[in-house]
Fold these 3 entries.
Entry 1:
Amino acid sequence: MYESIPAPAHVAAFRFAGKLTGDDYDRCIAEVETRLAAFRRIGMFCDLTAMTGLSAEALGKDLRYALGKLGEYDRFARAALISERGWLDRVSGFAGRLLPDTEVRTFAAGEQAEAIAWAGAFASLDANAGGTAPAA
């Protein structure tokens, strides 16, 4: 299951719990795409502390979505992840090297406000470059 949580308009913010299904994934990506239609670059926030996994359908959709976004990864400025899993710190560091235009950082449980603020803070850095300007 996923829940959309309040955040600035240029930040897609979600809390995941239990096992993510294909339907959950579709609704989540619809929200991401709405933000990408409105802004040239967006931030992401994901609270993964209660997530136990994802279905095969959701995993397949995620892989197709990722492949479909090749060449557009620079539109994802920052990704803030909340997790109590130490391995996720290492994975996010590796992902940061694979996605050089996307900053990835993990936060501890209880740091939601800080993480959302960090995910959206790129906007002030991009403001002069049109980073959060409406998408063309």
Entry 2:
Amino acid sequence: MNIGKIIRKYRKEMGITQEEMAARLGVTTPAVNKWENGNTLPDIGLVAPIARLLEISTDELLQKPYWVIDILPEQVPRESKGQFFEILLRNRMISI
């Protein structure tokens, strides 16, 4: 889940509107909307205030996306490297 989806999920669970959230964080309503739709990311200085507002930890807010790969290229067997990177490129997990 990306940060925008996490923000939307917890904001709705708390019954806070985008307008209320924006006012409490000192940002515009369109900014909150853009975060939630994945168009932009909140400024790093807002991560802790957002987490406090949503009553979650910063770790919860910054969850590692499901597609982050915990493998180093050198750990992939030589004979599989072409196929491995082709899959990553095709699924937009990496870019060149």
Entry 3:
Amino acid sequence: MKVFSSKWFFCLLAVILLLMAWLLYKQLIAKNYLQTKLNNLEAKVSSLDKENKLLEQEAEGLDDPDRLEEASRRLYVLKKPGEQAMVMPEELLVPSPTPETVSEQSFFGAFWQKIKTFFSF
């Protein structure tokens, strides 16, 4: 059979093989993308389930008047009649650096601290 030994047949066969390899590669890329997306969604579902359980526990706890009052005070800064409430800004709660601690810190230490804060180390 002269057809199977011709150059055109081998070129056609090579083109078909390359096309099949390219299609297989595209399928593998799509499979990896979908697998990654599935893993991300499963992790999100898991975290939402945990959050849901915590919210259900909190909702069950709100049946108790004392816990309801505590949650109301914490979330909405509510107070009883005749009671005085004080709201303090966060800046007052966090101690500010003193001149001694600032002078002790080197330039590289401050720079490294900013890097760690930026990348949440």
